[in-house]
Design goal:
With about 475 residues, the chain is an alpha/beta fold. About 30% of the residues lie in helices and about 15% in strands. InterPro entries: Alkaline_phosphatase_core_sf, DUF1501, TAT_signal.
């Protein structure tokens, strides 16, 4: 479902979202009095630099197996390098793991950063750092709850604040699951707008696009609501709006009409609704991405950026609870079996399909694609034939809008265990993303108390820019 993580937050005058929904008994399924949808921040960028209009983030929650994918070490002992070798790529001198052969043919469009460092080995706190650019206080805190002092906004929320909504769609959407530990019970910090306030939360679409019954929640009318009844209820909403105009209202309430219109747009606006309709894609295209939750989620991400969404983050944590590690990237057991059997083959399939599809549609130069995770994996196997968490060095890949292809930034040691040169912090990665979107890192946004904050305190990784 499309949902805002309001956590019972109250508006400035103490009226809760539940109170709003009860005003006048205006029930209309997901429409009612509108959700607290996003609006554009007042802050403007200090400089426009990049060429990317949108970003697709592919987040492998659990860790990228960098030894077998983006930073193979064929000369390392087998206890470190694992069971798989390295292969040549389209870029002379650049080798990738043998389990991602399709990706290897796309390196002329990719920049690989082999020296990402968080220094944190916990999903929640290292994830917070990759999502916000700020180290978690303290480090290595698993199941860390959201909230102060770890309440800096995510990349998704900052894009929501910096970019206006388009065609009834928000600037930022996260799908098909939330970032959370313990089966979704413990949300990570850094996934929402934090100190910017709830109105800059991205939209969270928690639903499987590969489900034949998939549709955007709230994009259709309830069965008992005809278009005539819709018109009548919208008229009633307008009357309530007129009444509200007579009240002494704070800034949040004065934004009511804007939020209402966005809620209506998703139902009444054909373009917004159509963006979620994967049935409009030819079978060949859907097959190209793969008939999996991950494949169809990435295809949906492409459709959403085509429709005007500025940032879509696709979270992948698990694919099958009956597989080791629930079929996810957190491969504490049977690491080699997992990455060969499903993880890297599916990722290779989906990633290459996205890059090629965007290029064929003329969209790659204006779409930045980021393949990232909260950390990598240990340079040695544990007693259960698995690899554990490793934030001391790992790899990520960027491609598309604003990125120079065929580039490797940084070098790790012979075991891919420590960085040797050109360390990249999460703040630097995010500064680079903002640069590609046209925003300098010193662009200012303001929190709920009016205090200024730069969108990043990192440095742009100049070596990978086009």
């Amino acid at each position: 479902m499309l949902r805002m993580l309001d956590r019972g937050v109250r508006l400035c005058d103490g009226v809760t979202r539940r109170d709003w929904l009860q005003i006048g008994g205006l029930g209309l399924g997901g429409l009612t009095l509108p959700r607290l949808l996003q609006s554009r921040a007042q802050a403007a960028p200090t400089a426009r630099r990049g060429t990317a209009k949108s970003v697709i983030v592919l987040f492998n929650s659990g860790g990228i197996p960098h030894h077998e994918s983006l930073d193979p070490k064929p000369e390392a002992p087998v206890a470190s390098r694992g069971d798989f070798g390295a292969i040549t790529t389209r870029t002379p001198g650049l080798f990738l793991g043998e389990l991602i052969p399709r990706t290897a043919q796309l390196t002329d469009r990719m920049a690989v950063i082999r020296t990402m460092v968080t220094g944190d080995n916990a999903h929640s706190s290292s994830g917070y750092q990759m999502l916000t650019g700020f180290p978690h206080i303290p480090l290595n805190r698993e199941n860390a709850p959201p909230g102060k002092p770890n309440d800096y906004p995510s990349l998704n929320a900052l894009v929501q604040a910096l970019r206006p909504p388009q065609h009834g769609l928000p600037a930022s959407i996260v799908l098909p699951r939330l970032m959370a530990n313990n089966g979704g019970q413990d949300p990570w910090p850094g996934t929402d707008a934090g100190l910017l306030g709830r109105r800059y939360d991205p939209w969270f679409l928690v639903r499987d696009p590969d489900d034949p019954k998939f549709q955007a929640p709230g994009s259709t009318l309830p069965a008992d609501v005809s278009t005539v009844r819709l018109d009548r209820r919208l008229s009633l909403l307008a009357q309530v709006g007129e009444r509200l105009d007579d009240l002494e209202r704070n800034a949040m309430l004065r934004s009511y009409d804007h939020y209402q219109q966005q809620a209506i747009n998703l139902i009444a606006g054909g373009r917004a609704r159509a963006a979620f309709d994967l049935g409009q894609e030819p079978d060949a295209v859907r097959d190209r991405y793969g008939r999996t939750k991950q494949g169809q989620s990435v295809l949906l991400a492409r459709r959403l950026v085509e429709a005007g969404v500025s940032l879509v983050q696709v979270n992948w944590s698990s694919i099958d609870k009956d597989k080791p590690n629930s079929g996810g990237w957190d491969t504490h057991v049977q690491h080699s079996e997992s990455i060969k059997g499903w993880l890297l083959p599916v990722m290779d399939h989906v990633y290459s399909a996205l890059i090629e599809d965007l290029a064929e549609r003329g969209l790659l130069d204006e779409t930045l694609v980021c393949w990232v995770a909260e950390f990598g994996h240990t340079p040695k196997f544990n007693a259960r034939a698995g690899r554990d968490h490793w934030g001391r060095v790992f790899s990520i890949a960027l491609a598309g809008g604003g990125i120079r292809g065929g580039v490797v930034h940084g070098t790790s040691d012979r075991l891919a265990a420590e960085p040797l040169s050109d360390v990249v912090q999460p703040a630097d990665y995010l500064a680079t993303v903002f640069h590609c979107l046209g925003f300098a890192p010193d662009t200012i946004v303001h929190d709920l108390e009016g205090r200024p904050h730069p969108i990043s305190r990192g440095r742009v990784v100049e070596s990978i820019l086009a």
